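haha ok so turns out i had the wrong file open the whole time. this is the CORRECT one, sorry everyone. sequence first:
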Amino acid sequence: MNTLLRSFVIAAALLGAAASSALSAQGATVKVDPSWVTTRASDSTVEFRLVAGMSPANGGMNFDGATVGSLTLTVPVKWHVVLHFRNDDENLPHSAEVTVAKAPVPATPDPKPAFGGAESRDAAQGVNFGTRQDLHFTADQPGSYIIVCAVPGHGAAGMWIRLVVSATASQPDVQAGPPTP
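then structure:
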């Protein structure tokens, strides 16, 4: 890793820690918009609108205004998932990738997504403002995952939300905060 990139990753991780503390201290709450999720039980498909940089939260490094896992999408196991990804951040490139949840979130996510198709194109470089991409995958393994921006440093800086693939859920759900047991 070159010196400039290493410096960026360290700075982004520090920014993420500061943003996480500030978010907790401010008691910020993510407002869930029901239009973010469309469910078709007839073919076990859930579609989720995933907007990078939707708000100024965390310097634009957020999904749907949520940072540091403050939004959870729960999907029943074996459902087909479509993430309608869009970058609304005019200042930074972003991407989306589903990876196995790890603490702390690594500065550079796994290069292979948790499910086939669960990664936007050019994930490590990200895409510019206004770019739209659809990610299609089947959530065939129950467990805890994260939807993270795979641009180096962005995930460690707090640009991630939770994805739970549940063996007991009967329908998809999205909620503010971590998953409820």
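The domain at 3-176 is CATH 2.60.40.420 (Immunoglobulin-like).
again sry for the mixup
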